[in-house]
Amino acid sequence: MAIAKPGEARPESEKLQTPLQFLKGVGPKLAKTYKKLGLETVYDLLFNLPRDFEDRRQTRKINQLLPGQFNLIKGEVLKTEVSTTRNRFSILKALIGDESGRVQAVWFNQPYLLAYLKVGTRLIVSGKAEVSPYDGQIQLQVRDFEIDTGDNLTIVPKYNLAEGLYPKKYRAVLKSALDGYLKYLPDKKKQAALLSMHLPKDLVAADKARDYLAYDELLSFQLGLLLHRLEQRARQPGLRFIVDPAAMGKFYQQLHFKLTAAQERAVADIFGDFTGGVSMNRLLQGDVGSGKTIVAAAAAFVAVCNGYQAAILAPTEILAWQHYEKLCQLFGGLNCRVDVLTSTVSSEQKRAELQTADIIVGTHALLEEKVVFRKLGFIVIDEQHRFGVHQRLRLIKKGEQPHVLVMTATPIPRSLALTLYGELDRSVIDELPPGRRPVKTHFVPKNKRRQSYEFIREKLAAGRQAYIVCPLVEESAELDLKAAKAEMELLQATVFPEFKIGLIHGKLPGKEKDQIMKAFANRQIQVLVSTTVIEVGIDVPNATLMLIEQVERFGLSQLHQLRGRIGRGEEESYCFLAGNPKTAEAKSRVKAMLETTDGFAIAEIDLKLRGPGDFLGIRQSGLPKFRVADIIKDEKLLLQAREEAKLLIEKDPESARNRWESQRENFEVAKGGLGGSPFN
């Protein structure tokens, strides 16, 4: 909502920003409890929508309880007791009765509720009915309850509440807010939708109201993203490159293979940006091994043909050198000089040579102040999520309105991409080059470990190579590193004594890492024990085997990235997942890895398992905090909102901007997002 500037009349809508402590029945003390839920103003309270609804028309008598199902009953508290287990876990039981019978209601680890469950109190209780393993009687594991005061609500909204807030009291405060403040919301349709959510006549009306509010929120957000993109283009005229068909013909002849249809589409998108006179700001998204580097190389060659330099920023030295070697081979027959700059290349003479290079590949060393380009016109940022906003901007400022291509090998679901990268143009490479075989993936329980080792030994004897991946997490990095070293020693001494085994991890100096990787690439090392340092960019086609230890400690997208290190040649490749997944989420991750090698399908599953806030640590990358919308469940609404936002901007840009400005401060966004986000 718009806030009045000094000297302007204050709109009535500002009354919605009234602190909750001034609402009837709240006060300063209870306001602190509301704050635990992120609710500080009347506006916050109105838009804190129910998580569920309880249909009290479906109440059952106690003698009608169905085991294994959720049931809703009304009854009187007849008896209560609290017991404590050996591990100090409390169990609260209340015997509840109605005219048909009695049932034991059970609350776990909530002894403080005893004060509210006085004998003779009438309750409304919902929960799952289960048969007790001790006495065979049905008991009710309570999900929600409240004191029955005999009101005539039939559809009751249920909210996520903090300790100290109880349903009846919460609804009374909310009713006060609706009665006194809802009229100050300028949009009448929103008023009606909020009433239908908080005081629903039926569940169908509540569902429609929720979808309306979610759609309205998504539409406002997409308006912000698209308007920002238009502004960026208007104030950032870019270099206009000429794409020479003859020069590109020579480039494609050097490849000795044909681009896939998806690669051709991505190249066409980029070339269209190059010739449009506006600075390109494009995301290139493609699964591991889909051929993003070739697309970036084609674009870099166009920049060079137009007299400009191209810079490729990589997150690790290993990946930078790998890009450098690949580009040297690619441009060997063309008049295009490739150079590399990492922290291990420090001489002033080497930095001076960058003035004559056409394509410069480097790590964070490219960002140093003393690194000066001759004429930087095109930038590629590989694995862009590993670089912060300010790092990217530092490199961009070294050129004059350069075109920028950011790349990621991590497939991002469409709903998340439209939310997080909505102001970027986006190209997707959604197919693998011909000849790439899907990796065969198997789960290895403890009793099958010996068989997996024997299989790997046979393949090693036939000339193949293997990765053994050990987990490494920040909380216990030193212990995990010791475990990786111990694993290498055990494998060398007892499992694969006839083969050379190496160890690589993140704490090794850059030169040592490079030496080990070169030895592995040259087949001087047959088995490479590694932490997740190999997750990004390592390309050894002869490595066709991978065993991932303690699979339950890896995220799904991370497992997919690791698996992408094999299957890069013509030989059949095998990935073994070893460990003991116990939680439902860990088992779901393993199941997904066994069922598909499609990175986009993996990403969709991972997003649903972890939610958008934790997907690849995106909480640090500018993800908005929606009050109503859920970008996983509401993907269809999101796509519709995106299209309507485009139409609104085309038809009436001033009206679209006014709508966005009136809503923009309702979106809370984590700092550290993409440079140029409309919310920074």
TrEMBL record:
GO molecular function ontology, one term from the record: ATP hydrolysis activity
Residues annotated as domain Helicase C-terminal: 448-613
Function: Plays a critical role in recombination and DNA repair. Helps process Holliday junction intermediates to mature products by catalyzing branch migration. Has replication fork regression activity, unwinds stalled or blocked replication forks to make a HJ that can be resolved. Has a DNA unwinding activity characteristic of a DNA helicase with 3'-5' polarity.
Family note: Belongs to the helicase family. RecG subfamily.
Region Disordered, residue ranges: 652-680
InterPro entries the UniProt entry points to: ATP-dep_DNA_helicase_RecG, DEAD/DEAH_box_helicase_dom, Helicase_ATP-bd, Helicase_C-like, NA-bd_OB-fold, P-loop_NTPase, RecG/Mfd, RecG_dom3_C
Protein name: ATP-dependent DNA helicase RecG
Species of the source: candidate division WOR-1 bacterium RIFOXYB2_FULL_48_7
Residues in Helicase ATP-binding domain copies: 273-429
